[in-house]
Design a protein that fits this description.
Two copies of one chain form a homodimer. The first copy, chain A, is α/β, with parallel strands linked by helices. In chain A, strand 1 and strand 2 form a beta hairpin. Chain A is globular. At the A-B interface, helix 4 and helix 5 of A face helix 4 and helix 5 of B.
Chain lengths: 187, 187
């Protein structure tokens, strides 16, 4: 797997193999009190959302327990839907060191479980997701959610964090489906 | 447990109960490529180190795999030594947002496992550890390691990261043993 991915940049023009290798893609938008997740299945009739939601942790819940809740939920999702690849939100705008530390903690709790389950993990910047989904890097959250709803033919507008997670999964597919010039970064 | 801890500030002058509640203390100094850990046992003849080491991850290992290695190792230690409380390095000096994110990830991977195992988790600032162990908040790492060696009667000087972890565990005991005016913060 690793060889195929690392060798992609060079061979991308000829062999867009990624989407065939992965049938179930997990998207994760990590945050301490509201981690969004979304699972899409890649069938012949296009991508289909099979799970989505938010790991909600109230402000009174201790930080370590929030992190446990994140890892527990992701473990359950992976066990249930058996994704083989995960797209996680990458470089972001952090106001300060403290915010970055907290966001890092949520990411760490998620990544440890994902690596344990043997998923390939790719990092995608929020700006890239917005560009891929809405066509505009500074798009608003609601625009992303609406586009995700349309692309996955969802009856209801997904909740913001879940929509971001589904958008990450869809972006991964987009980036690796076509003649990938600038694929997601493996971490 | 929670009540006893949260009520400590008020009743600390009369009832220094913490050290009796915990017989095995785990110290963790998290970092992506070199997480230090140390377990001390509190017996009648004073604290004794029962385990110490570093989770080493080479620079070529993918980040997510390092995080998995951290969580896997901590899970093993907890299973083997059954600590009931963990002292983890708290507020630190981070050069920038990126460093903070990476350090946060290592913390998150560790904290999720610790919370899952039901340990009480306390955060102690590095400065406080140095003050408690060496008596000087800006003490050098080697001074901390030498003092830890003396306090725990170790034959060899512990490795830097393991020494920091053992120092965290010892500081937790110090802070909660006496008439705690400024105990560690539960997270």
């Amino acid at each position: 797997m690793q060889e195929r991915v690392s060798g992609k940049k060079r061979s991308a023009e000829k062999t867009p193999v990624e989407p065939l290798a992965h049938k179930v893609v997990l998207g994760i938008d990590p945050s301490l009190r509201g981690t969004g997740y979304g699972v899409i299945h890649l069938g012949r009739s296009g991508p289909k959302a099979v799970a989505q939601g938010t790991v909600k942790c109230g402000s009174k819940l201790e930080r370590s327990h929030c992190l446990h809740e994140i890892s527990r939920t992701i473990r359950e999702i992976v066990h249930k839907h058996q994704p083989t690849v995960c797209a996680i939100e990458g470089l972001f705008y952090a106001q300060n060191v403290k915010t970055a530390l907290t966001m890092g903690e949520a990411r760490g709790a998620a990544l440890a479980v994902l690596a344990e389950a043997g998923l390939e993990i790719f990092e995608i910047a929020p700006r890239k997701v917005k560009q891929s989904i809405v066509g505009y890097g500074n798009a608003q959250k609601i625009a992303v959610a609406k586009m995700v709803q349309r692309m996955l033919v969802l009856k209801k507008l997904p909740a913001p964090d879940a929509a971001d997670a589904l958008a990450l999964a869809l972006t991964f597919v987009h980036l690796h489906k076509r003649f990938a010039i600038d694929p997601a970064q493996k971490i």
